[in-house]
Amino acid sequence: MFTVGLVVNPVAGLGGAVGLKGSDGADVQREARARGAAPRSGERAAVAVRTLLSRRPDARIVTVPGAMGEHSVSAPHDLVRHQPRAATTSSDTRAAVAALAGVDLLLFAGGDGTARDVLDAVSGLATAPPVLGIPAGVKVYSGCFALSPATAGFVAAAFDGTTTPAEVVDLDEDLYRRGAVSPRLYGSLAVPAVRAALSGRKTGSSATSEGTVEGIAREAVAKMRPGTRYVLGPGATTMAVGRELGLSTTLLGVDVVERGGAGFGGVGGIVAGADVSEAELFALVSGGPAALVLSVIGGQGFVLGRGNQQVSPRVVDAVRDGGGELIVLATQQKLAALGGRPLLADTGDEETDTKLSGHVRVITGYRESTIYRICPASKEFSS
């Protein structure tokens, strides 16, 4: 019998929508809950399990009691003896992985911090199972994650035992919150050998010339209309848009800006909201014209759902209801590196992702743009 283990980090992704840029550490988790954050990893794990069982109903699911797995499985399943604490920590994840060492494939739901815990755990096992990440964290830069929860289920159902190494990387979240992005390679995990279904490791933009980014920013600002609120997602390219407007915006947060009108001589602008949460963003874009200005994650192609969870399904709907558009920024090199693969949306709501699918104009430089396909991450690999 094909046996699949499941481990869920219940606090993965908790800090995303409330603007905390991560979920590592008890203090951050308490602050996230105080701001009204709701767990999302269990629900995303449930999507993966349902997809797996729809394709392979004879699979045996073995998991951990409570929120670390059991709550995400509605079908018959087995439980290991490990009993996690009410407030789970990395040690609970490592212990759960060790308890599931005998499975044929281990699914884990979380982000890069969870991937590190899984790596630590399997490194200490005499015989380690292959693993596959269900993306549920704020930052998902490692290459061991499936494109989406549904994709994780598809891959698990088709797994034939063939594996390939995938890198595990992570950031120092304290430095990250202060605007320093310095991913570190920690090692690799054996994952199913289906490269097209994996998100791949995030690549940086260090080779991109400053002139290219500034040209993209100049073109984006040239297309802005006074009276419209523009949501600037995280990233160096969107931050350059703020500079072009004469504004100081955040590198890793979500900001809302407006271009100035006659009082600015047609140049300049104001910050309507800096480093906002999902709730703050929804209030700012509701009831008036707004647009989304988002960049592409290098090497992965994600536009929504990785590091910008503040741009939620209801925010997307509010922008669309007001007649707003999605403006995507990316260098030609970044698009070329995708090798023809589409841009991806993973908001956590398949209906929203489907509404966004089709073709979108991508600004690639000053007076330069191209039309590129965008699709739901859950449908890019579905078999």
Automatic annotation (TrEMBL):
UniProt-recorded Gene Ontology molecular function terms: kinase activity
InterPro entries reported for this sequence: AcoX-like, ATP-NAD_kinase_N, NAD/diacylglycerol_kinase_sf, NADK, Put_ATP-NAD_kin
Keywords, comma-separated and alphabetical: Kinase, Transferase
Gene3D superfamilies: Probable inorganic polyphosphate/atp-NAD kinase, domain 1 (3.40.50.10330)
Coiled coil start-end: none
Keyword Nucleotide-binding applies: no
PANTHER family in the record: ACETOIN CATABOLISM PROTEIN X, ATP-NAD KINASE-RELATED
Protein's name according to its UniProt entry: ATP-NAD kinase family protein
Organism lineage string: Bacteria, Bacillati, Actinomycetota, Actinomycetes, Streptosporangiales
